[in-house]
Amino acid sequence: MPFAFQLNNNATGASLTNDGTMEIDFKNDNVATWTEMEQQIRSGLVRSIGLSNFNVKQVQKIYDSSKIKPAVLQVELHAHLQQNELLDACRRMNIAVTAYAPLGSPAAHNHFTGKYKVDMKVPSCLLTNHIVQEIAKKYNKTTGQILLRHLVEKNIIVIPKSTNTKRIEDNFKIFDFALEHDDIMKLNNLDKKEDGRIFDFRFFKGIEKHPEYPF
Ligand SMILES: NC(=O)c1ccc[n+]([C@@H]2O[C@H](COP(=O)([O-])OP(=O)(O)OC[C@H]3O[C@@H](n4cnc5c(N)ncnc54)[C@H](OP(=O)(O)O)[C@@H]3O)[C@@H](O)[C@H]2O)c1
After folding, report:
1. Which of 105, 142, 149 to mutate to test the pocket of ligand 1 (most atoms within 8 A of CB)?
2. pLDDT by residue, tens only, the chain of 215 residues
3. In the structure, which protein residues have their CB atom closer than 6 angstroms to any atom of ligand 1?
4. Would you say the C-alpha torsion 128, 129, 134, 139 has a positive or negative sign?
5. What Pfam families is this protein classified in (predicted)?
6. Most buried one in 56, 123, 130, 191, CB count within 10 A?
7. Residue 60: exposed, middle, or buried by beta-carbon count in 10 A (0-12, 13-18, 19+)?
8. If you measure from the C-alpha of residue 99 to the centroid of ligand 1, how many angstroms do you get, rounded to a whole number?
């Protein structure tokens, strides 16, 4: 993450403010953190290191200042937030991209409004989107499989989460078909750019004032 939290020295997590939200560290230095992460590779403790939720400028800064380059960038990426600029930049830097929330995270809204008591916009549901439904019908696949295949065809790694055995199995069955060009274009046209973002992390109160807030 490009922003960090104050450590609670008596516990393993972040220290909390009076209202229960995490206390933000406004002075974290991402280049210094990356240098420490490189050290973990040199000492044989880890094999690969990467970034999450960094924007293009922030990725470029780490890339330019590092000896060991990021292997991967994990960001929110789905049909409503296709991140084309970030994808191009990562391709140029030879950094793999992992899409989190690749199905549009249908449970996120309830989870975060419940946990942090914040006002979050309700994203429109990709799994029941009528264009995705039409395409799913054509290929005899689920809407989830269409959404995942759309990303995998662009060489994006997907990490759909499910607690349901059948859906976990279904989410793997995306390598026995290919989307036709017209259908890829229809899915590409679902991009809402920044308006499609669900995870703006504003449930950490005041995070948007952090100098490294990425969005
Ligand atoms: N780096 C970060 O900052 C960050 C932020 C957010 C998330 N993530 C990671 O990304 C992963 C995925 O994100 P996410 O869980 O927010 O979003 P997601 O994978 O887009 O959506 C998961 C939700 O979709 C449902 N689902 C899964 N497969 C389905 C299918 N085939 N058909 C219909 N519904 C389906 C799941 O419900 P059921 O369990 O009932 O199937 C679950 O509620 C998480 O495991 C998390 O570790 C990373």
Report:
1. 105
2. 999 999 998 878 889 888 777 899 999 999 999 999 999 999 999 999 999 999 999 999 999 999 999 999 999 999 999 999 999 999 999 999 999 999 999 999 888 888 888 877 778 999 999 999 999 999 999 999 999 999 999 999 999 999 999 999 999 999 999 999 999 999 999 999 999 999 999 988 889 999 999 99
3. 52-53, 74, 100-108, 127, 142, 144, 159-164, 167, 170-171, 199
4. negative
5. Aldo_ket_red (PF00248)
6. 123
7. middle
8. 10
Would you list the domain boundaries of the chain?
4-207
The amino acid present at 39, given as its one-letter code, is Q
35 Cα: distance to centroid of ligand 1 (angstroms): 31
**Residue among 100, 146, 170 to mutate when testing ligand 1 (max atoms within 8 A of CB):** 100
Nearest to 87 by CA among 96, 146, 149: 96
CATH class of the domain defined by 4-207: alpha beta
